[in-house]
């Protein structure tokens, strides 16, 4: 009897000690995950003395810490062991959801996205059965990440915004940081860099507020990468250096590889290139190449190396690196599309510089065809519509929270809940009316400037507006100049448009503008950009079309408009004139010069009587 009591006393004392260790580990995890893992692993040989629930908690923490340190196979092993123990629990535990999420993240990081998706769904199902709002939001965030990684952007934007609404209701800063970070990554993937930057900055602030130093530094590196993707290379360099200064206690090889590679590429592409500096930073990045079971890492490293070598004009070495990357990709069941696209484009660029134009053309065509097929799968307009819808929901939710805070004052929470139920219909209707009022007022007072900034669209035609057109054109121009690639500008003007407006009215003129926009969009690839430049002038930028391909598009557009049955109350048909200009490094020092050349050709076409193309 005494022996039995002593055993129970010992186990009770150990249980208390485990609770203390968990508390210490969770504090250390915020800033120094390495020390947290060492602290946790120091009791691994005593697991048999812990209760079942404590052992499950141990593996939950261990899997999370291994993931933070990018030791994904060990993270997967710990999560799998924890889930095996969880099956012995008498009732569902939130640890099952946590372990499923950890297992999913490790599996995702090791390259199996579909299996990770199933793990996330399993965890979310448990979280929902327990009605744990925080874990539900985390599960939705995990699903959203998988969806944008597999280019299911419509699903991603739905579940990530649902997750954000729950996180805002819960008021958990760390969770808000995580979900805002995923939204930033989503919008980066669909090319909305300004929106991506907003979410990443919010994420960084949430993590700082919750003292999650490790996570904040990680997001800061994503902000630097967003600057890099937006071709703001000096800003990227500044923030990457800030990341290095703040990441003293971060021990994560993929993290530092990404930071130093980002620095190297920023020095490659900035206006005043410094390839030798870039090479030094890439040599520093090589120290952190850690495959650790990630099948994409060797390919990523080889392609990054090829970019650096290409810019150092070490073309033979660059090609060797590219061919090795291609060999590794051929062994993968599902190679990453972005890696494949980059590999083909690098081949085309190098063969062009080497004067092997036939090979360069073949690989350039292959890269364009591949990119077009992938972009067809992404309905960006549908994604934008969803984004606006969920932003409206966020505004509605924010208003309700403010209303509730004003009405609650110092009342007890239980009484407040009763009042909230009684006023549910009123709040719902007033929230909807207020939301509509806010949007209308914003439209009237601000002249739709905010909405245009979000959508980048011209109100009448649905094409990109002049601001967005010139911004994207500048990006394409810079790329063509750096990579010695093609860029064609078509400037289009409607013949006798003033007379059409005077004789038939502006309503008919507007319909003609909209129809020309529709006919033009049908001819273009997604990478091409078609925008309204002025009242009746349009510009098309064709970044990956040679002169012949661009001329074919111009001819088709002119003929489509000429043959279209306009059904106007006039015998005259609608026609257009087109000015055609191809980028020439010596002739066009900036985008303005290219546009002026196209405009000059347009005037020549007009002077020849219109309804023709000059270039």
Automatic annotation (TrEMBL):
Question: Top EC class per UniProt?
Answer: transferase
Q: Which cofactor does it need?
A: Mg(2+)
Q: Give the UniProt keywords, A-Z.
A: Membrane, Transmembrane, Transmembrane helix
Which terms in the Gene Ontology molecular function aspect does this entry carry?
Answer: diguanylate cyclase activity
- Give the reactions, separated by semicolons, that this protein catalyses: 2 GTP = 3',3'-c-di-GMP + 2 diphosphate
Name the EC number(s): 2.7.7.65
Q: Which domain of life is it from?
A: Bacteria
Which residue intervals define the domain GGDEF in the entry? 485-615
Q: Where is the chain membrane-spanning?
A: 425-445
Is this entry keyworded Transferase?
no
Report any Pfam family annotated for this entry: GGDEF
Q: Does the keyword ATP-binding apply?
A: no
Q: What SUPFAM superfamilies does the entry give?
A: Nucleotide cyclase (SSF55073), TPR-like (SSF48452)
InterPro entries (alphabetical): Diguanylate_Cyclase (IPR050469), GGDEF_dom (IPR000160), Nucleotide_cyclase (IPR029787), Rev_trsase/Diguanyl_cyclase (IPR043128), TPR-like_helical_dom_sf (IPR011990), TPR_rpt (IPR019734)
Q: Which residues form the signal peptide?
A: none
Q: What NCBIfam families does the record point to? A: GGDEF
The molecule here is called diguanylate cyclase
Can you name the source organism? Thalassomonas viridans
